[in-house]
Amino acid sequence: MWSVASTSLACLVVLAAGLYDIAWRRIPNILPVCLILVGIVNHLFDRHLGLSVVLATSVFALCFIAWMFGILGGGDVKLLAAATFSIPANRVADLILVTALAGGVLSLCYIVMSRLLPRVSPVRPASRLRRILRTEQRRIVRRLSLPYGVAIACGSILVMTVH
């Protein structure tokens, strides 16, 4: 029972992180904290808390180095480390691989869209959703940063739900 609930909660949290990253290029700190709390409860049941702490800390350290070189954003670093902690220890390599593949697909999509999408008109849309979409279109056309939280969310959800 708890396994289904914790997986559902973790999937919702990473989905929210991906959506926040698209809209604002930020990931609120509360979302990685929620993943860590889910991970603590999960690892109390599977008795791999120590190993999961080591793995999540290692992922955080490697991603922190990527952040120092401007490869990842700070929210991405926290989200990937927290996602690492929230899954079983034997699935961490799957998470890293699937997230990297999702990041590659995301990059290809943005490259293709940057060539296909028209320039953004200066008229400000009335709805918040349209403003977010227009802002994202501007980011894509100008080839600005990727919302890598989307790749982390995709990788996390796939690893959490596919056994």
Can you characterise this structure?
Residues 10-107 form the Prepilin type IV endopeptidase peptidase domain. With 163 residues, the chain is mostly helical. The chain has one domain. It has 7 helices and no strands. It has helices at 2-24, 30-46, 49-68, 74-86, 92-116, 128-141, 148-161. The mean pLDDT is 94.
Task: Put the structure in a nutshell.
Helices cover 77% and strands 0% of the residues. It contains 7 helices and no strands. The mean pLDDT is 94.
Number of structural domains:
1
Percent helix, as a range, is over 70%
- 3D shape: elongated
Specify the number of helices: 7
Mean pLDDT across every amino acid position: 94
Q: Segments where pLDDT lies below 50 for 5+ residues? A: none
Spatial gap, N to C terminus: 17 Å
Summarize the helix and strand pattern as letters. HHHHHHH
Largest sheet: none
What is the total tally of β strands?
Answer: 0
Q: Give the percentage of residues in beta strands.
A: under 5%
Structural class: mainly alpha
CA-atom Rg in angstroms: 17 Å
